[in-house]
Amino acid sequence: NNHLENEDPEVYNIIQHEQWRQFSSLELIASENFTSQAVMDANGSSLTNKYSEGLPGARYYGGNEYIDELENLCRKRALAAFRLDSEEWGVNVQPYSGSTANFAALTGILSPNDRLMGLDLPSGGHLTHGYQTDKKKISSSSIYFQSMPYQVDPATGLVNYDMLEQNTHLFRPQLIICGASAYPRDWDYARLRKIADQHSSYLMCDMAHISGLVAAQEQNNPFEFCDVVTTTTHKTLRGPRAGLVFFRKLAPITGKPTDLESKINFAVFPSCQGGPHNNTIAGIAVALKQAASPEFRNYAKQVKLNARVLSDELTRYGYRIASGGTDNHIVLWDLKPVNLTGSKVEKICDLVNITLNKNSIVGDKSAVTPGGVRLGTSALTSRGLGENDFLKIAEFLHRTVKISIDCQEQAGSRLLKDFVRVAESNADVATLRNEV
Ligand code: PLP
């Protein structure tokens, strides 16, 4: 860090402040994690200087002998981390991030205006799974393809597979996407495969949130039933910010070769991207080695255990947890029964150094004022927190709700700006911040 401190103290200081923020707060954002120093060393290395468009052995630039070795190692480790046979599965490790991995997958397997179905954003799905509103196509995945989202059942908070199946008969999608950003339950891939097969649709899983848990065999295995599996590498997988696309080389039952390898590789480069970020690929390789270790399996188990404890304890305090619990690292907390919005609780949490995000809960009247917050246990589990710590965190969260209710009453209006004004001078906020 000496170079940075000497040459650019302004940037250096910002990084120091952010590092302190990360260290001193309780990080409950479900999509974040603390990657290891080894991953950060790889990510901040001289590999950032190199151009290497193309694939190992077939580059558009010279001087790539070590980069080829690195990318091959990363691909090998990616398959190994998910116990995949290199005859049956291949992987592209070049996507810059989860969104680009998804768009490359769509570009590879669909033609413009083809039809796709993904979990709706208000149901917990991701933007890149075809998100659009009644008024507007939002994501490029709904601008360039036709999208008909499926939903969770508002009564149970679980994916409504029956409704999805009925709608596939109307919409006849070329692609069904499963996986989500705010879904606390596991997926029924066998059922999805059956639904997809009725209209010869591709089945793609975006396992971004749960890929670390899948690697540790703590979730159902999407590779058993899907044609394509995408992921980010920086959530439960605990690597640098990037994406991966896995594709089936042989069809599941017939064992016949698919054309997915050439389609996906061509879609990543040259259709969607230019030169890969080799420093990031090195970081992914390091993270994948870690993810294949026995320590990582214990970590993934603890992530789930902590989420269950957090969910149970909040339920014990009388709160409503969407879907009634969790199978993974996510707890989706519905604040409508206590008459609060996610924005207000997020604000109080920010003031007391607890970091989380507001999240819509299925059945919210308006998507603009989400009715809940999303909590995740992967980051704090990386910092060594266990069940007792999460009981304490549940108590802190309970107190943030009590403070939010007080501030809402004192503000005398429902506007967020009045709420913030009152919150900033609330004495209980200062007390709680000290305890956190
Ligand atoms: N897919 C899912 C399920 C996600 O939750 C996210 C991000 O939160 C992404 C894709 C996009 O990843 P990125 O932010 O790296 O583009």
Walk me through this protein's architecture.
The protein is an alpha/beta fold and 436 residues long. The chain has helices at 2-7, 9-24, 37-43, 65-81, 98-109, 140-143, 161-171, 189-198, 211-215, 260-272, 278-291, 294-316, 342-351, 378-382, 387-411, 416-424, 427-435; strands at 26-27, 54-55, 58-59, 89-92, 115-117, 146-147, 175-178, 202-206, 228-232, 243-248, 320-321, 330-334, 354-355, 357-359, 372-376. The strands form four sheets. A seven-stranded mixed sheet has the order 4-10-9-8-7-5-6, sandwiched between helices. A four-stranded antiparallel sheet has the order 11-12-15-14. Strands 1-13 form a two-stranded parallel sheet. Strand 2 and strand 3 (58-59) form a beta hairpin. Helix 5 (98-109) crosses helix 10 (260-272), helix 7 runs parallel beside helix 8 and helix 15 packs across helix 16. The longest helix has 25 residues, at 387-411. The chain binds pyridoxal-5'-phosphate (PLP). One of its GO terms (biological process) is glycine biosynthetic process from serine. Its cofactor is pyridoxal 5'-phosphate. Pathway: One-carbon metabolism; tetrahydrofolate interconversion.
Q: Gist?
A:
This protein is 45% helix and 12% strand. The protein is α/β, with parallel strands linked by helices and 436 residues long.
Number of strands: 15
Query: What is bound: which ligands?
Result: pyridoxal-5'-phosphate
The description of the largest β-sheet is: 7 strands, mixed
Mean pLDDT level: 96
Oligomeric status of the shown chains?
Answer: single chain
Query: Which structural class fits the helix and strand makeup?
Result: alpha/beta
Quote the beta fraction: 5-15%
Percent helix, as a range, is 40-55%
Give the count of helical stretches: 17
User: What overall form do the CA principal axes indicate?
Assistant: globular
Which segments are poorly predicted (pLDDT under 50) over 5 or more consecutive residues? none
For the CA atoms, what is the radius of gyration?
Answer: 22 Å
Gap between N and C termini, in Å?
29 Å
Strand order of the largest sheet: 4-10-9-8-7-5-6
